[in-house]
Each structure stands twice: as C-alpha cells, then as structure tokens.
Amino acid sequence: MEFISADSWVSTNTFDVEDFEDYQDLLDKKIKKNVSISVIIPTLEEEKTIGNILNVLIQRLKLKISLLDEIIVIDGGSKDGTIKICESFGDNIRFLHEKDILNGVKTSKGKGNQLWKGLYSTKCDIVVYIDSDLKNFNEKYVIGLLGPLLTTEDIKYVKGFYDRKYSLQTAKKSNDGGRVTEICARPLINLLYPDLSGFIQPLSGEYSGYTSVLKNISFNSGYGVEMKILIEIMEKYGVESMGQVNLISKEHDHQPLNALTKMSFSILKTMLRGKVNDNFSRGLMIKNIENTCIENMKIRSDEHTHCNNSGLQMTNDYFKYTEMNDMDLPPVNQVSINNDEESCSAYS
Question: What's the CATH number for 6-182+193-253?
Fold first, then answer.
C-alpha cells in the first residue's frame, strides 16, 4: 500500500458534520449508490438515554426522510428499564439479546461482543455504530458518520470525534474527557501505529463503515474493540480508506478511575498483540475508589462484573481483584450456521 503521512491524511480525510447539512442530497446519493443502512446500538442499563436516541432516529431519519433502513438495539442483559423502553418502540426497531445470538461460538461478554453480534445480525450494506449513553444525541451524529461514505468513493470507514466534557462535583466542566485516549492509547499509537496518529478520537464509540469491510476484520469482545477495528482496517485496507468527522460535542456519563484501568489494560493488550508475542495475565490489581467524587459515575447491576468497578477484596479497602476475560473475535464472514448450530472456522 502507498504510504500516506499523518499530516496529509488529516488534510484530505477529515470532515465536518456541517458539510452534510443537505439531508436530501445524502438520500439521493444513497439511492444512487443503491445501498442500505443500519444503525446498531449496544445497550447495558441505559434507561436514561436510550429512549431519546431511538425516538430521534425513528422520527427524523427513518420515517421523515427514509435514510435508515434498520435500527438494531442489542442488549447485554440490562436489569433496569432499558429493555422495556426499547420494546415500546415495537417494529420500528429490531431488539436483540446478546445472549441469544451465536451461542455456539466461543466468546465473552462485553461491548465488543455486542457490536460483533449486531454486525452478524444485519444484511445492510452500511453500518453506523452509536453508543447508547449519549445525553446530547441528535440526528447529526448519524448524518456526519454517513456523509463521507455516501459522498466519496474511497472512504470505507469513518470515525467520529468531538469535544468530550468531563465534570467533577467540585469543578466546572472542561474538555478533559477521553482520559484513556490521551494517557494510554495515543502514546502507543504514536509509537507502534503512527499511521493512525491522525485520528483525534481513536477510541470513540461512534463510527460507521461498509459491512463488506467490517465483516472481514476481527473484533475484540471488550474495551479494546475500537482499537482493534482501527488496526485491522488499516492493515487490511490502508489508512487512505479511513476517515474521521467532527461531530462537535459529546456528553455522557464518565467512568471512575478503576474502570479506566480495565479499559487501559484491554486496549494495551489489543495494541501489543500485533507487535509482540505476549502472554498477559488475566488478573489485574485495581484501586478501590468507589467513593470518589466523580459525577455521573456509571452504575451497573452486580452481575455485570465485566463492567463494574467492584471485584474480590484481597488485602484491604484499597485493592481488589478483577478478572479480565476479553478476547479477539474472528471476522463475521467466517461464521456460518450448520445444522442449526453456529460454528466458526477459527474455533473448529
């Protein structure tokens, strides 16, 4: 593949959501390209935000201008009101349970697993992934992610970026969100994957791509999924096939520090796997800061140990032990159904 510098890539492959304000033009281009579009949303106890997200997608992009052909919500086992809210939208969405899909394929719980199973469940030509905890969601998130795919011939994958507001109870809001990105991911990207250094928000949960590309790459079942996708597409299709779009601002609940430790661990494993012959421990020592004054801390049901801050206490109130069970998942196009049972060549 022809080398392209990060500076050159940023200047040619960076877009702005305001470049795609003509929704009818996007619809015309969609019709001309003869493609179908699915939005896939992973949920796990997001009763405060999922209703608004679905209402906006249905009313403004599916019913009003028919830009979307499908909306998939795939739930990881919510115990709050998330499932009831989703079911209230009836046939306007496809509501799926993570546990009911590809049960015959070895995997582990996690956001990446939901994204992977959602991708398996769609037949659309383009997929848009949207996080389910967005407090300031509007249709421009999807418009911005679709714009470069529909208006160019070479862009096959688009990553969103934005200002991320970080708030403490004792401080004013700032633009210091994305702590794992700046402290963990970006230094390693610059060192090990410099071709990806132009991505402003490499770990953002809002991105889109052609399913022919996404179904041909490996995923990660946990927090490392966004980094895994970037690396896989770069290595198989080249950074010139990738773009990013400014989505202006993102407001959502932030994770406490020990949850970020888990994220960093998974991301580090994902990034180093392709560079070294590693044998990382599944165990991880994390600091217990459950009483930290972080505002909007995410709270999950006790059974969702892969998402929670908690773990088995080992020595005192400061350290706990938490299992990290994330794993790489094979390309969706390697998964097949034989005799009513799912199988995968990677695990045969």
Answer: 3.90.550.10
